[in-house]
Amino acid sequence: MSTHPRYPDLVDAAVLITGGGTGIGAALTEGFVDQGAKVAFIDIAQAASEALALRLAENARHAPLFIHADLTDLDAIKRAAEQAEQAHGPATVLVNNAAFDDRHELLDMSGEYWDNNQAINLRPVAFAAKAVAPGMIAAGRGTIINFTSTSYMLNIGAMPSYTAAKAGIVGLTKGLAGRLGPDGIRVNAIAPGWVMTERQKKLWVTDEGLAAMIDRQCLKRPIEPEDMVGPCLFLASSAAAMITAQVLIADGGMM
């Protein structure tokens, strides 16, 4: 059973989440479904996403809608947003969570690699916002939460295109907040620390590396995907009614 506070304004709210089928995104999808929201989530991982949607539908006020799409395709983003709107009405909450934190070497990096990495990690944030903005503007309200990362603040040298994209999300967040604020739309970002998703644990987590990170944190335990749900629900809700253009760091006090 969820231990998160209940936000009455999220009940029946139309929520669209990118990358909502696995990792942090799956936790976010479950968190909003548990609030009673009408959740549509976009992901390229079909099998995992279908299984998640089926599991969550069993006890949901509204069964979540999985939309299979490649977010590097701008037309696919537009079509996915339209499909979600047809099912649930115009989104009043957008969570831009999708990302791919591939490690890559600067000296081996090609222009094609750079462009593709930005097309996954930065460009969909802007175009998903563009896709839902007309509905939010018409409603006179809405909230957009963009997931950035503390990685770009830490001088990590193993993923320059990814960290550039995550820094870009902060600039984009502030720009969108300025543009959409007069229409009653709030735009904020969440910067997670090193979250122990299955992907992280499979590819990069070692006992030594995790111990070193926890040693730098004020809170002495691993960060789990579920730890990102509370901050996101808060920013999506009316409890954060006068919060916009901000970056909420959720890293256990490491920064």
UniProtKB/TrEMBL annotation:
<comment type="similarity">
    <text>Belongs to the short-chain dehydrogenases/reductases (SDR) family.</text>
</comment>
<keyword id="KW-0560">Oxidoreductase</keyword>
<dbReference type="InterPro" id="IPR020904">
    <property type="entry name" value="Sc_DH/Rdtase_CS"/>
</dbReference>
<protein>
    <submittedName>
        <fullName>SDR family oxidoreductase</fullName>
    </submittedName>
</protein>
<dbReference type="Pfam" id="PF13561">
    <property type="entry name" value="adh_short_C2"/>
</dbReference>
<dbReference type="InterPro" id="IPR036291">
    <property type="entry name" value="NAD(P)-bd_dom_sf"/>
</dbReference>
<dbReference type="InterPro" id="IPR002347">
    <property type="entry name" value="SDR_fam"/>
</dbReference>
